[in-house]
Amino acid sequence: MELSVFNITGKDTGKKVTLADEIFALEPNDHVIYLDVKQYLANKRQGTHKAKEKGEINASTKKVKKQKGTGTARAGSIKSPVFVGGGRVFGPRPRNYGFKLNKKVKQLAKNSALSYKAKENKIIVVEDFDFQEPKTKLYIDLKNNLKINDKKSILVLSNENKNIYLSARNLKQSKVLTISELTTYDVLNSQTIVLTESSVEKINQNFNLSK
């Protein structure tokens, strides 16, 4: 698959880049996408929820009422879950929600997500560029020039660039990532993916499962 390369003013440079078919044109595997997104969301959970059970309630140990003759069920402790303020039965405990996924499964999920975006023509390639200083207006101008200002987008760089990252940080619908930070969730959660020329080369080299 070939795509035209644009500059930051939105003009076609006349250059073309090739997106590897093994990454951007494979038959997407929906199940591995589901697993990878599930793992991503699970890893973001804090798991710090906690409820007190009967043994952890700080209350009097005095017997609530006499054992017999009340006409109601016997009750030995105010800490019992049947009373207001008592402990909770099988309440939530701190836990880790994360689970393991094989590297190749995660990579297949990422490639499947990229294939969906390529099929929907939601990938744009721009020349490698840099900003002389961090400035939000520069990034807004870039999105306007590429006609994606009203869309949720991610810019994928081959290496970290502090000026570009800081320029996009305050924009709600914009995100700047390096290739190593890119996740299946990020790809699916964006309407448009902007790749730089150098990032396309690295993706073609590093994301190919057949190598």
Folded structure, characterized:
The chain contains seven helices and six strands. The protein is an alpha/beta fold and 211 residues long. The protein has one domain (2-46, 101-206): Ribosomal Protein L4, Chain: A (3-Layer(aba) Sandwich). The model has no long low-confidence stretch (mean pLDDT 93).
Chain-wise SSE layout:
Layout: E1 2-6, E2 12-18, H1 21-24, H2 30-44, H3 103-119, E3 123-126, H4 136-145, E4 153-157, H5 162-168, E5 174-178, H6 184-188, E6 192-196, H7 197-206
Parallel strand pairs: 1-3, 3-6, 4-5, 4-6
Antiparallel strand pairs: 1-2
Helix pairs in contact: 2-3, 4-5
Provide a quick synopsis of the model.
It is built from seven helices and six strands, in the order ββαααβαβαβαβα.
Q: Mean pLDDT score, rounded? A: 93
Question: What is the percentage of strand-forming residues?
Answer: 5-15%
CATH architecture: 3-Layer(aba) Sandwich
Low-pLDDT residue spans: none
Q: Specify the number of helices.
A: 7
CATH H-level superfamily? Ribosomal protein L4/L1
Class derived from helix and strand content: alpha/beta
Extended strand count: 6
Share of residues in helices: 25-40%
